[in-house]
Amino acid sequence: MSKSKSEPLFRISKRDDISFKKALMIRAIALAAALLVAGIVIIMIVHVNPFKVYGTMFLGAFGTRMRSWVTVRDIMTLLCIAVGLAPAFAMKFWNVGAEGQILIGGISTVFCMKYFDNLPTFVLFLVMIITSMLCGAIWGFLPGFFKANWNTNETLFTLMMNYIAIQFTSFMVAKWENPFGSNSVGIVNNDSMRGWLPSMFSSSPGDDYGWNVVIVMIAVVAMFVYLKYSKQGYEISVVGDSVNTARYAGIRVNKVYIRTMLISGAVCGLAGFVAVSGASHTISTSTAGGRGFTAIIVAWLAKFNTFTMIFISALLIFLDKGASQIASDYHINEHVSQIITSIILFFLLGCEFFINYNVKFKKSSKKSKEVAA
Amino acid sequence: MKKVLALVFVAVLCLSCLAGCASNKKTIGVILIGDENEGYTFAHIDGIKKALKATGYSEDEVVWYYNVPEDETTYDKCVDAAEQGCKVVITNSYAHQTFAQKAAEKYADVQFVSMTGDTAKKSNLKNFHNAFNATYESRYVSGVVAGAKIKELVEAGKLTDKNYDADGKVKVGYVGAFPYAEVVSGYTGFFLGIKSVYENVSMEVSFTNSWFDIAAESSTAEKLIADGCVIIGQHADSTGAPSACEAANKAGTVVYSVGYNVDMLSVAPNAALTSSTNDWSVYYTYLFNQLKAGKEIATDWSEGYNTGAVCITKLGTSCAEGTQQLVDNAEKALKDGSVHVFDINTFTVGGEPVNSTFCFDSDGDFVYDQVEAIKDGYYHESEYISAPSFNLDVDGITKLN
Amino acid sequence: MDTNLAVEMRKVTKTFGSVVANENVDMQLRKGEILSLLGENGSGKTTLMNMLSGIYFPDSGQILIDGKPVTIASPKDAFKFGIGMIHQHFKLIDVFTATENIVLGLEDNKKFDLEAASKKVLEIAEKYGFQINPKQKIYEMSVSQKQTVEIIKTLYRGAQILILDEPTAVLTPQETEKLFAVMKKMRADGKSIIIITHKLNEVMEISDRVAVLRKGQYIATVNTSETNPQALTDMMVGRATVLDINRPEPVNPEPRLVVENLTCVDEEGVKRLDNVSFTAYSGEILGIAGVAGSGQRELLEAVAGLYPVKSGTIVYSSDYKNSKSLVGLDPLSIRKMGVTMSFVPEDRLGMGLVGTMGMTGNMMIRSWRKGKSFFLDRKSPDKLAQKIKEELEVVTPDVNYPVRRLSGGNVQKVLVGREIAAAPSVLMTAYAVRGLDINTSYTIYNLLTAQKEKGVAVVYVGEDLDVILALCDRVMVLCGGQVSGIVDARTTTKEEIGLLMTQFRREGAKENE
User: Where do the domains of chain C lie, and which CATH numbers do they carry?
Assistant: First the structure.
């Protein structure tokens, strides 16, 4: 019998279901493999003990109390954007315009900080939150409206809206430039600290970012409930699965497009508020800083489950903090440290393949003989 | 499940322990706009390393932050450095200062230095400082080099009608970044340097509105060359302008380049005359010495030729004969104070000599409203605050945009 | 070892996740025979054939070609052994010509010569009696022409063993006749052919032997001459099924849906429905027959408010006095007017259901709007899902298990169950039993008949004429978007309907594709 002469080395088949335990095991193995491969690269490039490097990464994110808070703060901002993207992406509406929606939300926040700073604190925050969400919503509304009425391509449209927002930000930065010649707005209300999100456990803003966590977690829970338990969330799921089914079910698809983009834009605008009032207290074209795109990865990997997004955001921010800490501590180029974090990310994301698919390797020749017999 | 969790915990514990052992005492935080691949930042890294060696600090005591943009990230890094126990935190780009200042307010016992910044004096903070080399001096000297070349070209009859303006003055071009005082001070110093050797010149300045934009700098230089400019000076960080000069020079046009920051001979072996440049180690050595001795750090620090903080690069082969002698004389005169760059006898504004002007904006309205700058017959650049403040529109210089 | 065997499969097993598609299946194909592979839906016929053609690789078992054990790891390997499969969904490139599609991907070291290839294509066509224009582009072809290209593609590659997966599903009776003639010629030429089909009459007509699979397991192979449809059905379903469909006389029919001069055009401006007029009565099943793409889909969707109407009227009347025009209304407005119209669309997962949701979520397609609350009511749809799961014996691990993972029959049960549960006065179904096994099909027939008996106006778009003739009261035949006839199902014949289906084919053919 020459049965096993050219059986393929391995075969791939889709898994139906996988137990939580098994999935966790696969992820653990992936993490071990990632650390191993990254370790080899570290030894080759940086010539230091890889465990020290991993420790450095950990310290980069959580080394001091302030670092932990900054890490948490950045996780929250990224998470808020991803939560904003969730309804649009669940509807298969490719909103790649979060970047612009954040900026517009941020600009409106700065505007309120500058011109409404005489309002009572609570009212001021309310005004800031509402205007930032409103402005973000407008930025989301336009592509939704055009898609609904003229079937424009939302990817291009939202992308273009980003550039408009960036240019608008540059314009506002030039208008609010301080000090002259810095090409930046400087810190808004540096002395009065009006419109700065306060610290939760301390009297001076920026000592902790507890309120950022509160605001974003409210968004996380609200969006989860909205998508899963509301009628509008149901409409979004149906439209996302099939526009024809939605029409069949009596869903006004165009209305859903517009309404969902209003919500998506509003939450991204809120992220702009969180980024400005809760962290930077300034606005620049780098306020969004590509996070509007990173959040797409977060939303996708989490399969639009806003709670899963917490972990994904945390992972990405952790790696980011780790990378700059490696660069700083070992005096290496940041690109090198990014290679290391990329390796880890590659394995952790790559293992999703093994969770979704079953790979069977070639059986030993003895076993195949039994089968043949 | 429990096993996995336990494993993860153990791993995390091991890692933090290992990392904990690895960390040293940190004294100096350095926040940089770029990394060693970027010329301006490289010059700072180089200066800091030299200064560390000179003052006996170990490199292990330095926390480096690379590629920090001029936004809230700066504040995070300042805080991070302070939390790690740094005694001094340096930022190297202009707009870092707002965020450094905010951190300075919070960490009163940590010294913050914003290189090239200008708000230290106004902030009234004891622990917030600015430093800026007197670059206008080296620009003046590089102007001397250019003046000598112009003189040679005129005497050799190499210039054509195109190279003279309506008043019969030789045209000089300047690629500026932004129309800020730092740039105005620089090109005026350059202009006065030329005039100290060859009086009959006029200058056209064109701005790119970017500190670093090879394409824009190159096209701006080309425009100026086409206009008949014989010398192209620059206050922008790329090699765009020298490369454009070299190309035109090779094509037979009479044009030469005076660069900035780095030696341009590698990209323009024929067209480059020299570049004005800085040696940041002079300031950093001062800073670290003060730190070590526990002495106060100057709120504003600006030094030029007398401490060697500024200089020009090696003269190119195209330089006129006798240039070195002129350069030596000029440098000596600047050192001993017999010559001042902004001597009121050397320039006029609107046809009139200037006898009085302010140099400090106290209220943030972008208009100088305090501190008399002209004393003893010259404009005291970078004395009240270290950042350049000279922004008069001197006769003979035309802004094109 | 029997050297007369072209293919022998021994104890082949294939599993997908926890689903066993084939379990220890044996199959033998003799040289120069036509073997019918018969089985209910989900019985593993296509999976078995996909292993033969290299698309899947068996978990265990053995395949022998010409008595020699072989490994078929890819379609390329299959070609090497002379196996060619014609899939249900054609794998052709629309903008290429027939010849270009046929030679596509062919690796030989000879110079690429389209002219020579065209000549060879024509030779093959002549030999077996195909009609083909080698230079015609695929998008200009009818379904049967495309099928021809697929078959020639395999023959061109020297296939000795051909596998046809439900080749007649998309053909008219006349086209089927032609295909069978070609198949017989190929058999005469010594080719071995496996045909997968549901239609028992075709099995009886074309094949020499019949292999029967049931639930992934091999049952038996019998000589066609020694069996009959009833016996085959018994083997397939494992128990005797009554082939007769119960057809009570309509009771007290009243006009429920009156469509007059309905004309619809698509986005490209092509007329899809041309002046269609008919009346659907309460208490009867109106069958709609026609070659695929004759306007059936557009007609049902236009009535349901999902397809734009250019001109004409659609009037719904609950009794003689009360009539409502439905033209220009969307499904929501129609529902809000109080018209309970149920619609089982042709595209089950693309229009009728949400594939990523479970049964409960799909029940909500009808009920989600109910109530004033901002939040969804999940309880009653959940109950309904449980009820349908039990009553229609839907095989699913859980009512929240994504329906796209269910087999075709179960998907259809979910859809039909839901639509009937809405207590409609008009029930429209498009290809309600397509791809379903006999058992499920009968379940559906009985459900429709029960609706009819309740006084519902049922519209049944179907493709199996035998079923249409047995189930419906009247039959409307569409051809090229026009009504070519409305006949009494009790008195008409298959031949008459077949003729009506092709009556306007000359003009309509191009639009259909």
Answer: 5-237 (3.40.50.300), 251-340+424-434+447-513 (3.40.50.300), 352-423 (no CATH)
Exposure string of B188-200, with b = 16+ CB inside 10 Å and e = fewer, is: bbbbbbbbbbbee
Query: A32 lies in a domain?
Result: no
Q: Would you give the end-to-end CA distance of chain C in angstroms? A: 48
Decide if A16 and C18 are in contact by the 8 Å CB cutoff: yes
Q: Give the other-Cβ count within 10 Å of B265's Cβ.
A: 22
What is the interface pTM, i.e. ipTM, of the complex?
Answer: 0.79
C272: nearest Cα among C223, C225, C309, C327: C309
Q: Which among B22, B64, B102 has CB closest to A55? A: B22
- Residues with Cβ < 8 Å from A67, sequence gap 6 or more? A59, A60, A61, A321, B80, B83
State whether residue C81 sits within 8 Å of chain A by CB.
no
Count: domains in chain A: 1
Query: Rounded to the nearest 10 degrees, what angle do helices B72-83 and A65-90 cross at?
Result: 150
Query: Cβ–Cβ of A250/C352 closer than 8 Å?
Result: no
CATH 3.30.450.40: does it fit domain B135-277+315-399?
no
Q: How far apart are CA C262 and CA A135, in angstroms?
A: 47
Contact state of A234 with C364 under an 8 Å Cβ cutoff: yes
Q: Which of C345, C343, C364 is nearest to C424 (CA)?
A: C343
Are A244 and C304 a contacting pair, CB within 8 Å? no
Residuewise pLDDT in 10s, chain C (513 residues): 456 888 999 999 988 766 678 889 999 999 999 999 987 666 788 889 999 988 888 988 999 998 889 888 888 888 888 999 998 778 888 888 998 888 887 766 666 778 888 888 999 888 888 888 888 888 888 888 888 999 999 888 888 999 998 888 777 778 888 899 999 999 999 899 999 876 777 888 899 999 998 878 888 899 998 988 778 877 876 654 445 778 888 888 889 999 999 999 887 777 889 999 999 999 999 999 887 678 898 999 999 999 999 999 999 987 666 788 888 888 888 888 888 899 999 888 889 999 889 999 999 998 888 888 889 888 899 999 999 999 888 888 888 888 888 877 788 889 999 999 988 999 999 988 876 777 788 888 999 999 999 999 999 998 777 788 889 999 999 987 889 899 998 888 877 787 787 654 334 333 343
Residue among C18, C349, C376 minimizing CB distance to A231? C376
Look at residue C275 and give its three-state secondary structure.
Answer: strand
Model's pTM, two decimal places? 0.76
User: Judged by CB atoms within 8 Å, which residues 222-281 of A form the interface with C?
Assistant: 229-235, 237-238, 241-242, 244-245, 247-252
Task: Tell me if B24-131 shares its fold with B135-277+315-399.
Answer: yes
Residues C347, C353, C357, C359, CA torsion sign: negative
| B19 to A58: CB separation less than 8 angstroms, yes or no | yes
Q: Do B83 and A331 touch (CB under 8 A)?
A: no
Alpha helices in B303-393 (DSSP H): 323-336
Chains C and B touch (3+ CB pairs under 8 A): no
Secondary structure tally for chain A: helices H, strands E: 14, 2
Are C192 and C160 contacting, i.e. CB atoms less than 8 angstroms apart? Answer: yes
Q: How many angstroms separate the CA atoms of B146 and B323, rounded?
A: 9
Cβ-based contacts under 8 A for chains A and B:
122
Instruction: Answer whether B touches A (≥3 Cβ pairs < 8 Å).
Output: yes
The candidate with the shortest Cα–Cα distance to C425, out of C300, C334, C277, C318, is C318
Per CB-CB distance under 8 Å, the chain C contacts of A244 are 306, 347, 350-351
Quote the CA–CA distance of B183 and B177 in Å, as a whole number.
7
Of A186, A166, A185, the C-alpha closest to A175 is A185
